[in-house]
Automatic annotation (TrEMBL):
Its main location: membrane. It is a single-pass type I membrane protein. Gene3D superfamilies: Phosphorylase Kinase, domain 1, Ribonuclease Inhibitor, Transferase(Phosphotransferase) domain 1. SUPFAM superfamilies: L domain-like (SSF52058), Protein kinase-like (PK-like) (SSF56112). GO terms for molecular function: ATP binding; protein kinase activity. InterPro entries: Kinase-like_dom_sf, Leu-rich_rpt, LRR_dom_sf, LRR_Rcpt-Like_S/T_Kinase, Prot_kinase_dom, Ser-Thr/Tyr_kinase_cat_dom. Residues 475-749 form the Protein kinase domain. Residues 1-23 form the signal peptide. The keyword Signal applies. It is found in: Membrane. This is Probable inactive leucine-rich repeat receptor-like protein kinase At3g03770. Pfam families: LRR_1, LRR_8, PK_Tyr_Ser-Thr. GO terms for cellular component: membrane.
């Protein structure tokens, strides 16, 4: 009996469950049939009718329904490509009101169905939604804010619609968002910074819209693998990116910076297209050997620099398009090895090759110089004039700065004489006034400038663009001296007959001339017997917003070549004596001391090739850390915004940078002693060890290390002192390295010992014509 009761209860429950299931199913069926109607019975749904069990529908490429325990969780309807607008009586609101009757939908794909209208906020009632794909319809208006309520949303694809407005800030409310694709819409504005908070983002596709401006820092998107931004107005700065990228498409934008060195860490990058921008600066050779890269398109930019035929390439590289840039040198041999079926395009550069149309090298050099001139849709001639005019404006700003400096000098003097003059308004226009006054109130600085005065270098001034052009014979290739990390260098002659070296600094970011006033101010004061000093500058400006495109810095021309050529070219009679070598080392150390203690310029990364000798063989440091590079700009503005106070970490950084300079100086000392340059750190370490041993060993050991060219002239105590200071400069632990004052003292000691020996020698031998003597 109990059994029967039990059974009937069970039966009732089963019937009830089936009923609930059926009504559930029939409500879903009704909804789907309504959807079919609202979509105007598209061909892909032609087999839908009352009798279909939708949850068990055979999926095909255009229609798929997926249920979970009787509830519909996925609905995919993909119409015929090129579907036309649904009729006038279609209502997006009515359509979405029907859709939300399927509240368990996690995945919704409604592609190419002719949907038109703006997306109703009610769509957020599909609160389980994880994937929404409504590509290739005619949706217009903005992306409704209600989407931000779909906190489980992982994929949002609205490609190929007519969506307008800006990309909203509220995307940050979708922490799980992995794919955001809004290609082919008419979205505009710049991207919100909140985008960089979407840590899970793997695909960001915003191609073919009207976005513009700088991109937010995307390096925080550590999972980003696909970034597609083609055909917008992004720029000018190359985006900051994480290193997991696989696909990077930046074609057809307004990027005008250089390609950052970080690309060498993009170990997964397979596809790189930066074509049709105005990228400048040298092409990083590492691109050819990036381990995963198979597609590289840099065509139609203004990338410069020498390509070497010995560059190595990655085997995977299948498409390479370098065409229409300003590259010189030879194509990498590895690219041309034709056993690989690889497409390599490189026309319209200045490469040394008979193949594909190339320009003469001078074309690339001149164009490389002219790229600062951004003449949008204007004839070149006209833009030139405008640039000239603007560079004069730039000049005027500079003059104001200089007048400001002059004014301060005068003011200081007057204050001393306690005859205070009223302030003029001039100084108020000078944003660097405070800075100037600080430097000028530095007694050491003043004494340095005094010392400098008798050196006969003309005072700092602002040059016109015409003067620069004239000096370089319109940037003739014969005037081209080389290209360093800080831009091209040209030799020139000013009207007064003096020779100069002109450094062209291209700006990576857009700054107004005002941003540079205090840098220029500082540069104008970096004058020292042992520095290659700046004589003047000229700003060149962009036409569109008068921001600085290039700065020409005019330096004294130091005619006698590099220190390297004077220690290592033994057979050319151009070898410095031991005394001259110590003198050069003392000179460099004095230059460094000035940079550190007076100018506050660190991280100079000086190499032996950066030390030039003048007609009297006085050593002068070129390529010191000019306070104009992008990093230092960032540095300076950061310092400013944080109130400018030098806190503990600031001091620590300065210490580290000073100690790095000491190390670099130690390398130069090593090269001076050994008589040749070193390339690898390994070589340097080995020799340092050897010298370390030799110091505590005997004179024979020491002499065996020194350059044979000066072996017989250097006396042991002098050599030993030089070796000691050299080894200490190269100590691994930066804290144990000597200060620049300590270095200088030791070098001068080494010089004196050597000098005393020469003196003794002279007095004992008497005659100054002995060949030994000329060495001293
Ligand atoms: C729209 O109008 C057509 C006739 O022009 C009609 O067949 C269709 O059912 C209407 N659709 C809706 C959703 O009312
Ligand atoms: C199916 O839908 C019903 C009604 O919406 C709901 O109560 C039930 O929890 C759903 N089942 C599952 C497995 O989601
Ligand atoms: C979205 O729809 C487009 C067009 O059919 C398709 O190519 C794409 O793969 C879909 N994406 C997802 C995640 O379903
Ligand atoms: C963006 O586009 C909308 C309409 O499409 C327009 O009203 C708006 O001015 C544009 N905004 C910007 C910043 O260009
Ligand atoms: C590289 O980009 C340019 C411009 O976008 C395009 O015309 C060219 O076909 C591309 N090269 C390759 C190999 O795809
Ligand atoms: C390639 O050649 C250039 C000059 O021809 C040279 O400076 C460079 O060191 C070489 N690089 C390698 C990796 O051999």
């Amino acid at each position: 009996m109990a059994q029967v009761v039990h059974n009937s209860v069970l039966l009732v429950i089963v019937i009830l469950l089936v009923r609930i299931g059926l009504s559930q199913q029939s409500s879903q069926t009704r909804t789907l049939l309504r959807i079919q109607q609202l979509l105007n019975f598209p061909a892909v749904l032609s087999n839908w009718n009352n009798n279909i069990d939708f949850c068990n529908l055979e999926p095909d490429s255009s229609v798929t329904v997926v249920c979970y325990e009787g509830n519909m969780t996925q609905l995919h309807i993909i119409g015929k490509k090129g579907a036309v607008l649904l009729p006038r009586n279609f209502s997006m609101n009515a359509f979405v009101n029907t859709l939300v009757k399927l509240p368990d939908l996690k995945v919704l794909t409604l592609v190419s169905l002719g949907l038109w209208g703006s997306i109703p906020g009610r769509i957020a009632h599909l609160s389980s939604l994880e994937i929404l794909n409504m590509s290739s319809n005619f949706l217009y208006g903005g992306i409704p804010q209600e989407i931000s309520l779909l906190s489980g949303l992982r994929t949002l694809i609205l490609d190929g619609n007519m969506l307008a407005g800006q990309l909203p800030e509220w995307f940050r409310a979708l922490p799980l968002l992995t794919v955001l694709s809004l290609k082919h819409n008419v979205l505009n504005g710049s991207l919100p910074n909140s985008l960089s908070e979407l840590e899970n983002l793997r695909v960001l596709s915003l191609s073919h819209n009207h976005f513009y401006g700088e991109l937010p820092d995307l390096s925080t998107l550590t999972n980003l693998q696909v970034l597609e931004l083609e055909d917008n107005g992004f720029g000018p700065q190359f985006p900051q990116l994480g290193n997991k990228l696989v696909t990077l498409k930046l074609s057809r934008n307004k990027f005008r910076s250089s390609i950052p060195a970080e690309v060498n860490s993009f170990y997964q990058l397979q596809y790189l297209d930066v074509s049709l921008n105005s990228l400048v600066g040298p092409l990083p050779p590492v691109l050819f050997s990036l381990q995963s890269l198979s597609f590289l398109n840099i065509s139609r930019n203004k990338l410069t620099g020498m390509v070497f035929d010995n560059i190595s390439c990655n085997d995977e590289l299948k498409f390479v398009d370098l065409s229409s840039n300003l590259l010189t040198g030879s194509l990498p041999k590895c690219l041309l090895a034709d056993n690989k079926n690889r497409v390599v395009l490189y026309a319209r550069n200045c490469l040394v090759t008979e193949e594909q149309q190339q320009h003469p090298v001078s074309f690339c050099r001149n164009e490389a110089l002219a790229v600062g001139i951004v003449a949008e849709g204007k004839k070149k001639d006209r833009s030139r004039k405008a640039v000239l005019a603007l560079s004069i404006v730039g000049g005027v700003v500079g003059v104001i700065v200089l007048l400001g400096i002059g004014f301060f000098v005068v003011r200081r003097k007057n204050e001393k004489n306690s005859t205070k003059k009223p302030r003029t308004t001039l100084i108020i226009e000078n944003p660097s006034a405070e800075y100037t006054s600080k430097l000028f109130s530095d007694a050491r600085y003043i004494s340095q400038t005094m010392k400098f005065a008798p050196l006969g270098i003309s005072t700092y001034r602002v040059l016109s663009y015409e003067e620069i052009e004239e000096a370089t014979n319109n940037f003739d290739s014969s005037a081209f001296m080389g290209e360093g990390s800080q831009g091209q260098i040209y030799r020139g002659q000013l009207k007064d007959g003096s020779f100069v070296a002109i450094r062209c600094l291209k700006m990576k970011r857009r700054y107004s001339t005002q941003n540079f006033t205090h840098h220029i101010d500082l540069i104008s004061k970096l004058r020292h017997r042992h520095l290659v000093s700046a004589l003047g500058h000229c700003f060149e400006l962009y036409l569109d917003d008068s921001s600085v495109s290039r700065i020409f810095l005019v330096f004294e021309y130091v005619p006698n070549g590099t220190l390297k050529s004077w220690i290592s070219e033994r057979h050319s009679r151009r070898s410095l004596t031991w005394t001259q070598r110590i003198a050069a080392a003392v000179g460099i150390a004095k230059g460094l001391q000035f940079l550190h203690t007076v100018a506050g310029v660190y991280s100079n990364k000086i190499k032996i090739t950066d030390v030039l000798l003048d007609q009297n063989l006085v050593a002068k440091i070129s390529s010191y850390n000019l306070p104009l590079m992008a990093e230092s700009m960032a540095e300076v503005s950061r310092g400013k915004s944080s109130g400018g106070s030098k806190d503990h970490s600031d001091n620590e950084r300065i210490n580290q940078e000073a100690q790095a300079d000491i190390y670099d100086f130690g390398v130069i000392l090593l090269e001076i002693i050994r008589g040749r340059a070193f390339k690898s750190k390994g070589e340097i370490n080995v020799l340092r060890e050897k010298i370390q041993e030799a110091i505590s060993s005997d004179i024979v050991a020491r002499k065996s290390i020194v350059d044979p060219g000066v072996q017989n002239e250097c006396i042991d105590q002098s050599l030993k002192t030089m070796m000691e200071v050299c080894v200490r400069c190269l100590l691994k632990d930066p804290i144990t390295r000597p200060s620049i004052e300590d270095v200088l003292w030791n070098l001068q000691f080494a010089a004196q010992v050597q000098d005393a020996w020469c003196g003794e020698y002279r007095s004992s031998e008497g005659s100054p014509v002995s060949p030994k003597l000329s060495i001293c």
